[in-house]
Write a structure and sequence with these properties.
287 residues; 9 helices; 4-stranded mixed sheet
């Protein structure tokens, strides 16, 4: 699920900014961007993220704004001497006078000045960890709000599928009458009305109607829909379970469609399938 959290903390004149972004993913994919000061703490940071965020694509970015007075500048004397000798040799070989401000130019060369930051201490690490947890709380709050919206949408679609079951029932009696008349007429057209054994015809008709009866499928489908709604209210870690229930719902809908033998019923089945596919898409975002 998507989420965003941000926290800031100030320690030893360092302003530390923590940003966490999450996207939906079936697996846990953690990406950490942190200054070198805390490279040795990356494993602890990763474990903190995994413990608070069940799964998903997680990006953590930590940045530092450090006061200049907290930095110590040092000249690299070895580098300065090497630069000066090389410049002097080039000037001598090409008869070029050595400029008086050559030292100012050398100071601007790479690796001549090194800014050293103070090392971190346990208190600063403690403050950073608190900041990460604050950002994680915001992320989870963001996720919870999105989850409530998803839950409302998913359950409304599930209720619509249940309502379609009632719509299907309106066509069942009509379907049976149509099938009886069609079979009777086909038999008359083939063998003639005088040779029809009514008892045998009724027996065969009952056998055929039993094969296309959908009462069991309707009962199971209603039970699955109710179980789905109950599971949705259970709490965290229900995404996979809801996915399994949705698969069972899909099987019952497919069976009803294969037994329908009625255009109106099959149209309703198509609408049920459409709602179920939308539910499955949403379930990909449910933890």
């Amino acid at each position: 699920m998507t989420g965003f959290g941000k926290a800031e903390c100030l320690n030893n004149n360092r302003k530390i900014t923590i940003e966490i972004r999450t996207l939906n993913s079936k697996l846990t994919d953690v990406s950490i961007k942190t200054p070198n000061l805390w490279k040795d703490r990356e494993l602890e940071i990763r474990n903190e993220l995994i413990n608070h965020l069940n799964r998903g694509k997680v990006e953590l970015h930590i940045s530092i704004e450090e006061a200049v007075e907290e930095m110590t500048a040092q000249f690299n004397e070895t580098a300065i001497v090497k630069y000066y000798r090389q410049i002097a040799d080039i000037a001598t070989q090409n008869n070029i006078p050595l400029p008086p401000d050559v030292l100012c130019s050398i100071v601007c060369m790479p690796d001549v000045i090194k800014l050293e930051r103070q090392e971190t201490n346990e208190q600063e690490w403690h403050d950073l960890l608190l900041g990460i947890r604050q950002a994680l709380e915001q992320v989870n709050s963001f996720r919870e709000q999105e989850g409530l919206t998803l839950k409302k949408d998913i359950l409304s679609r599930m209720r619509l599928i249940e309502a379609y079951i009632t719509d299907i029932e309106e066509f069942e009696t009509q379907r049976i009458d149509v099938i009886k008349n069609r079979l009777r007429q086909s038999l008359i057209d083939y063998a003639g009305e005088t040779v029809i054994d009514q008892n045998r015809f009724e027996q065969e008709l009952i056998y055929y109607l039993e094969k296309i009866d959908i009462n069991e499928e309707k009962v199971r489908l209603r039970n699955h829909c109710s179980y789905f709604a109950e599971t949705a209210n259970d709490g965290d870690g229900i995404g996979k379970k809801l996915g399994f229930i949705a698969q069972e719902i899909g099987r019952e809908i497919n069976t009803i469609g294969s037994k329908a033998n009625n255009a109106d019923m099959q149209q309703i089945v198509v609408r049920m399938k459409d709602e179920l596919e939308k539910i499955k898409e949403q379930l990909l975002n449910v933890l």
